[in-house]
Amino acid sequence: MAKNTPQAIRGTQDIFEEAEAFSFVVDTFERVRKLYRFRRIEMPVFERTEVFSRPLGETTDVVSKEMYSFEDRGGESLTLRPEFTAGIARAYLTNGWQQHAPLKVATHGPLFRYERPQKGRFRQFHQINAEILGAADPQADVELLAMADQVLRELGIEGVTLNLNTLGDPESREAWRAALVEYFEAHRGDLSEDSVTRLEQNPLRILDSKDRGDMALVKDAPTIDDYLTDEASSFFDSVTSGLDAAGVSWRRAPRLVRGFDYYRHTAFEFIPDEGSTAADALGSQSTVLGGGRYDGLMETLGGAHTPSVGWAAGIERLAMLVTASGKVSDNHLDAAIIPMTDAALAAALDLARDLRGQWQTVEIFGTGKIKRRMARADEAGALVAVLIGEDELSSGEVTVKDLHEGEQVRTAPSDVGDIVAKAQNAYYMRSWREQGIDIPDMDAWPDDLPDDFFANPEDRHRDFE
RNA sequence: GCGAUCGUAGCUCAGUUGGUUAGAGCGCCGGUUUGUGGUACCGGAGGUCGGGGGUUCGAGACCCCUCGAUCGCCCCA
To answer: How do residues A395-411 score in pLDDT, each as one tens digit?
Structure first.
């Protein structure tokens, strides 16, 4: 470690190797969110502390221990956002977004929690997020979940299923809570020390205790089904039948809960199946994507009753799974341009501009010995190397070498684009073959393509993606 | 906030019961090769051993403090 270099802040991460997977997650989310017409919103990274503290109420730990709060120069307490929902709710109220209700919004970015870093937990982390605001109808839950399901499928993540529960309306929830307290009170002596304090502070949380003894008790604890009102029950039925109709597979998770009072009805988490590759990568307890209905949130911020649902998913965690699935695009290099003398640099820059204009990836290797430049082109996985030296300059040509076949030709710079395109074809054919993908009959292609197919480089790029 | 383990070259690590100028592999730069990818061989650069203090004739190693990392617990919006 350099002695005079400042260190990064604890719990922050500099993402390098994983960044391509990270970007793939965000791009996929953006693409899918448009299919469902969720509107993109951008939110401030910090808010008045009360925006986040008021919805949480009296819970001491989260507010006092887990929030990244500080005073600004005016003495105002500010907090780096620990989640998206509260800030979005504040914006909904302060900007009069009620006029757009029901409003479907999506966003992503960094969040901050003052936590001890450990596996999969950082002080700055990143989430993708989707909300439907001002929608009391169970159809909103279904659409939101269908979108979440599609995001995961488009990411190529397998072995993760939707775990679903309902917390009912306030009446149902309160009755269930009372029954749980009564049940655990009767077994107080068998509860772990932590769960005894949970019994006082947040009894629902006993249901996801990690203590073995607690888990045994939890197995026989009352479930909410016996306490659901007719309204709450039919709401949940609508959600589940809607999911079935939408082709979203799910599993009932009667002990899945949310601790805070503003949650109502639907609560859900996408969790890796036991023994799946996703579970191996993250551990079977790790939630990949979670959310629920928070009908009671807006009131805590001084707004009118505004039923809403939302979910969030950790980008780092998804990126880990995506890396395992091998679906991330490799961003290979099409052409490495190698000017062999300083005089050739201008020609190299000119050709690079031309090729990049045709959506071909290009890098110029113009430093070090020629041998070294070639080696770098090879390491970068370039499909072709384009050599420009004194001979080429005097004849107005360039030398193009296919780095897989080893053959090279002298040609006019204007022909390089087509040569690279052919090399791209060969490249994709090779990679499909390696992946065991059925290769269509290439000979049939040129006749079927419109004459001007290659005239629009954007089309070509899209077709080969 | 509590607990455990760990910090040696850019990276992965070795370094004996405390003992002379702290090593290896990979990577980087150069040479054998004046305009061509690989391999091999040869050479080079690169460390106040996370930081501070202490014990000792002598500390990378032992003790204390501190910073950081990893993994748990609490918490999880």
So the answer is: 999 999 998 888 889 99
Q: What are phi and psi of A163, to 5 degrees?
A: -100, 125
From its phi and psi, is residue A173 left (phi > 0), alpha (psi between -120 and 50) or beta? Answer: alpha
Nearest residue, CA→C1' of B68: A10
Distance A279 CA to B34 C1' (A): 58
**Gap between the terminal Cα atoms of chain A:** 41
Q: Which nucleotide is nearest to A372 (CA to C1')?
A: B37
How far is it, in rounded angstroms, from Cα A150 to Cα A32? 7
- Residue A383 tokens, joined: 């499909």
Q: Strand B: which positions are within 7 A of a protein CB? A: 1-3, 9, 28-31, 33, 35-38, 48, 50-51, 67-77
Fold of the domain spanning A335-464: Rossmann fold (3.40.50)
ipTM summary value: 0.87
Nearest nucleotide over every DNA/RNA strand to the A86 CA, judged by C1'? B77
Range in A104-108, A130-134, A279-283, A425-429 the model is least confident about: A279-283
Residues A185-234 pLDDT 10s: 999 999 999 999 999 988 999 999 989 999 999 999 999 999 999 999 99
User: How long is the CA A59 to C1' B66 vector, in angstroms?
Assistant: 33
Domain ranges of chain A: 19-169+229-325, 335-464
CA distance A364 to A337: 5
Q: Which one-letter amino acid corresponds to residue A127?
A: Q
Nucleotide nearest to A79 (CA to C1'): B77
Read off φ and ψ for residue A179, nearest 5 degrees: -65, -40
Q: Which residue has the tokens 């970007």?
A: A23
DSSP string, A21-54: HHHHHHHHHHHHHHHTTPEE----SEEEHHHHHH
Fold of A19-169+229-325: BirA Bifunctional Protein; domain 2 (3.30.930)
SS3 assignment, position A402: strand
